[in-house]
What we know:
Layout: H1 8-17, E1 21-25, H2 31-40, E2 50-55, H3 62-68, H4 79-87, E3 92-97, H5 100-107, E4 114-117, H6 123-133, E5 138-145, H7 157-162, E6 167-175, E7 179-187
Parallel strand pairs: 1-2, 1-4, 2-3, 4-5
Antiparallel strand pairs: 5-7, 6-7
Helix pairs in contact: 1-2, 5-6
Amino acid sequence: MVGNARYLPLIDTVDLARPGVILEVGTHNAHRSCEMIDRALEFRPASEIQYHGFDFWEHLTRDMMAEQFKLKPKGKAKHSTALKRIRQRGVAFYLHGGDSRATLPQHAPKHIDIAFIDGGHEVETIRSDYRALAHARWIVFDDCYLQPHVYGDFGALRIIQEEKLDAEFVGHFRHVDLGDTCMAIVRGGG
């Protein structure tokens, strides 16, 4: 069950990928993680699924919040909350705390069926995340702010345009502060 309807395109992509390896940047408290894993469990047994989660968790400082997020995040995520929720699914999992610009190149697996990029919102962070995950079979970007003249240094839209990615823009909604926003789904290189 999807807790927020705007994430239905993400779950639809899980249906297409039927993933054995799921990677998420921006695990936070593991709500989307569990939704992706639960859907993947409809296609494979838990013994055939790996989840890799990346987030700042307790490493997040006020300065990082200001650099990475246009708006104040809902709250600081806890590694222990994510750990508990994911452990309940019975899949193999690996959680990596810290800045994804450093942790992804070190810890991202060589094979990824689906990568969900929803970590830092600053363009250079999203670019770094994408480049570390370009080999994934499917890539889903959250936070595609469709008014780049307002949010030019934030959101995934600029990366999609500059990297000339063939993206399907889905899940459009109007954010009260950010305006028109959506997700982008890209068939990756894996």
